[in-house]
Amino acid sequence: MAGLCEGGNEPAGSLKAIVSGSDSGHVFHLHGYSFYVVGVTQLKEPTALSHIQQLDSRGSLVSRNLVSPVLKDTVTVPSNGVAVLRFKADNPGYWLLHDQHVSYWTNGFDVIFHVGRPSDVPPAPQDFPKCGSWIGPEFFLI
Ligand SMILES: [Cu+2]
């Protein structure tokens, strides 16, 4: 598994993301990448992010599979659970990590990963719609 390592030896451009759930399970999907699911666990009760970070820094949050982790673009995080994901952030852009359940879209469950510099992203095509230049279907105009 090239590009995967533990502790302070993160390879340049790699990203470790810890995704925590809530009282219900969540299905997170990442655009722009596939990621390695190196660990998933379910905690006994709702746990504050700061405590999750403490557990992780002590190495007692979840055991990691750095030998044969599964490669996915979607992961299920169990209720009161945590998933540790790793991927090499080598695709410049703004990439959405979001819960697949529509009802959570406005509840702060979405994350944007900004990878690279703005100059790394190709410019929009000349005819790309601008704000105010697009008119949606009739049902948006009601
Ligand atoms: Cu999506």
UniProtKB/TrEMBL annotation:
Pfam families, A to Z: Cu-oxidase_2
All copies of domain Plastocyanin-like, residue ranges: 22-115
InterPro entries, alphabetized: Cu-oxidase_C, Cu-oxidase_fam, Cupredoxin
Domain of life: Eukaryota
Keyword Heme: no
Keywords (A to Z) from UniProt: Copper, Metal-binding, Oxidoreductase
Protein name: Plastocyanin-like domain-containing protein
UniProt source species: Periplaneta americana
